[in-house]
Specification:
Structural class: alpha+beta
Radius of gyration: 16 Å
Shape: globular
Number of strands: 4
Oligomer: single chain
Order of helices and strands: HEEEHEH
Length: 128
């Protein structure tokens, strides 16, 4: 994950954030608000890097984030060479604190396995 101080222009510094978290965060954590590239609605983002994981949650008030919004946040919070993932866990392990929140995850010290590119798109399409 990027040094989150690089994203300070989007960092939330409200008294509510300070009261809830005890501060506004640092290079490893924080709350952020970015405008959606889809409709300019506020994307509320919580990011942290601890416990062996980078984690970014993205939520909107009235709907789930779209793929393009998650990709936008991924590019803002993670380095270009880093792979991040969304997980679909078994129903018995599903935990939800917000109906319109999605998450990006990246484990520390482990390369996330990816399928060969040919399994994602024909060779002509991913060569461009």
């Amino acid at each position: 994950m990027k040094d989150l101080r690089l994203l300070d222009r989007w960092r939330l510094r409200t008294k509510e954030v300070i009261a809830f978290f005890g501060g506004v965060g640092d290079h490893t954590c924080g709350m952020f608000s970015m405008r959606s590239p889809v409709d300019a609605k506020a994307l509320l983002i919580q990011a942290s890097s601890s416990g062996g994981w980078d984690h970014v949650s993205v939520s909107l008030r009235n709907r789930c984030p779209k793929w393009s919004e998650m990709e936008y946040v991924k590019r803002a919070f993670f380095e270009d060479h880093e792979t991040a993932m969304q997980l679909h866990v078994p129903p018995t392990d599903h935990i939800s604190c917000h109906p319109y929140c999605l998450h990006l995850w990246r484990p520390h010290g482990v390369e996330i396995p990816r399928p060969p590119a040919i399994m994602v798109a024909p060779k002509e399409e991913h060569a461009a």
